[in-house]
Amino acid sequence: MNYKLLIFILLISVAKASSQELRSVQEPVFQVGEKLRYKLRYGFITAAEANIRVESTDTKFEGKPVFHLVAEGKTAGSFDVFYKVRNRYDSYIDQKDLSPYLYTESIREANYRRSDRARFYQDEKKIVSNKGTFKGDGQTFDVLSAYYFARSLDITKLSVGSKFSMDYFLDDGVTKLTIQYVGKERVKTALGYFNCLKFSPSIQPGRIFRKDSKLYLWITDDGNRIPVKAQVEILVGSVTLELASASGLKYPLTALKK
């Protein structure tokens, strides 16, 4: 199981506004101290776990205060015995417009080690990383900043069938992700039932996904906009991502109906 699949599934929640609307964030729906924990199941087996949190920091970029976002992922159970993964992702984002300044990765997968760094210059529409310099068409995000930015967008006027896109930087290039709004749905999780907004992002068949694979994501229909469940069929079997716990939320989790 490739742990980057977990990061990808979390990332799909970001594409909820067109490029013309990306600067519409009024106020973050998250706060310092928020912690989210996820479990990824391959069939009935828990294959990986992830913790995502917002930390305070005295660090400033261009004289501006920032949020420090952290995501840590690791394999679990038998997967941890045969292919141990301990990955960490950090992003520093502007406290007002939530755009990223710096993104880093520390990858530890079995005997493989890698550290990456990317500095974002939004005014110049470029990203300078240890792999080179890359240009974007407009606002460009890393995987973590995109996740938190999109949660703060106003999506109350979405209509069923609407498709939107967003640019993000990952590995060695800028990618555009497209997603379709499916509608509202109540979904069952280990924590209880959630009233959710359901999305279906586009995916490319290949090493992981089948030609006819469908990917679905459920996000809380409340002020927090937390992804609580994602499900996708892969070449062999299926993968489910599910929220295991949430704390330090800015708003009451009213979407949860136990």
Automatic annotation (TrEMBL):
**Mind telling me which InterPro entries this protein's record contains?**
DUF3108
Q: Which domain of life is it from?
A: Bacteria
Q: What protein name applies here?
A: DUF3108 domain-containing protein
